[in-house]
């Protein structure tokens, strides 16, 4: 079995119009790896949320680029979404009360749900944000071992 | 990029017997969120109509789209007007359950 990592790297304008291109690429790569339909749908949401944050917060109104790196490993897919814009404080990882479960409608707010969804839908999520140097989000999903596949 | 947004996402509206049903098709994400808001705004404000969104042909929704649905829930709740979702695909229902917005839709179905 090959242990080497194979990489696919996309450079995209940091605009909302290109986030679906990331999803299309993700679909192609993840299905080639043997991920289930449901797994791929989960990853689509998580990766899009990471891209949305770069689009919304990194570059304000200015042009910028998002780099998405897919790392194909024998038993996992790692997706890194990286921008070089301003780092964002909007993802407050200390606040775990972002979901709407314990809120009534008057208090319900959507902020933070993107980050929550990334964490809930992936096996591992890390966010490195450095002032002036942009933000890097790494999302990892393990490939479930199937008895039927050899 | 000059994309044909109608291919990616569209919303068609049907009014019948005091109920306005909006059929969503395609992918509701950040890029089409402004279009969706624009379609929904006058409908949300009309308290005379029952408002229903049919998601049967919606392939994808992100937190932006869920955020818009939440704002519609709030607005309709404030007006004591109905807002229901119908034919929610399993993958989207999963996101509704995870985020917690599902309970607000459920309480619309069974008002106390």
From TrEMBL, chain A:
This is Anti-sigma B factor RsbW. The gene is rsbW. It comes from the Bacteria. The lineage of its organism: Bacteria, Bacillati, Bacillota, Bacilli, Bacillales. Its EC number is 2.7.11.1. GO terms for molecular function: protein serine/threonine kinase activity. Pfam families: HATPase_c_2 (PF13581). NCBIfam families: PRK04069.1. Keywords: Kinase, Serine/threonine-protein kinase, Transferase. Residues 12-140 form the Histidine kinase/HSP90-like ATPase domain. The keyword ATP-binding does not apply. InterPro entries: Anti-sigma-factor_SerPK (IPR050267), HATPase_C_sf (IPR036890), HATPase_dom (IPR003594).
Automatic annotation (TrEMBL), chain B:
It holds the Pfam family STAS. Residues 9-112 form the STAS domain. One of its GO terms (molecular function) is anti-sigma factor antagonist activity. InterPro entries: Anti-sigma_ant, STAS_dom, STAS_dom_sf. It comes from the Bacteria. CDD domains: STAS_anti-anti-sigma_factors. Belongs to the anti-sigma-factor antagonist family. This is Anti-sigma factor antagonist. It comes from Paenibacillus zeisoli. The lineage of its organism: Bacteria, Bacillati, Bacillota, Bacilli, Bacillales.
């Amino acid at each position: 079995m090959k242990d080497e990592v194979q990489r696919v790297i996309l450079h995209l304008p940091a605009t909302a119009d290109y986030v679906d291109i990331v999803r299309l690429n993700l679909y192609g790569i993840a299905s080639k790896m043997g991920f289930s339909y449901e797994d791929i749908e989960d990853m689509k949401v998580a990766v899009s949320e990471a891209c949305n944050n770069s689009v919304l917060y990194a570059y304000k109104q200015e042009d910028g680029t998002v780099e998405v790196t897919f790392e194909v490993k024998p038993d996992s897919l790692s997706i890194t979404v990286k921008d070089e814009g301003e780092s964002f404080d909007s993802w407050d990882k200390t606040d775990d009360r972002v979901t709407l479960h314990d809120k009534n409608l008057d208090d319900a707010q959507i902020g933070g749900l993107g980050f929550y969804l990334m964490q809930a839908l992936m096996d591992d999520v890390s966010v490195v944000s450095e002032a002036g140097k942009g933000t890097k989000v790494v999302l990892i999903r393990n490939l479930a071992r199937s008895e039927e596949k050899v | 990029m000059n994309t044909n947004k109608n291919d990616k996402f569209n919303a068609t509206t049907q009014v019948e017997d005091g109920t306005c049903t909006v059929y969503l098709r395609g992918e509701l994400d950040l890029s089409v969120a402004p279009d969706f808001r624009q379609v929904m705004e006058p409908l949300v404000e009309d308290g005379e109509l029952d408002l229903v969104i049919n998601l049967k042909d919606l392939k994808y929704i992100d937190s932006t789209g869920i955020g818009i649905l939440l704002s519609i829930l709030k607005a309709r709740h404030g007006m004591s007007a109905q807002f229901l979702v119908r034919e929610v695909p399993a993958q989207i229902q999963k996101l509704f359950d995870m985020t917690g917005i599902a309970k607000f839709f459920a309480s619309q179905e069974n008002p106390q």
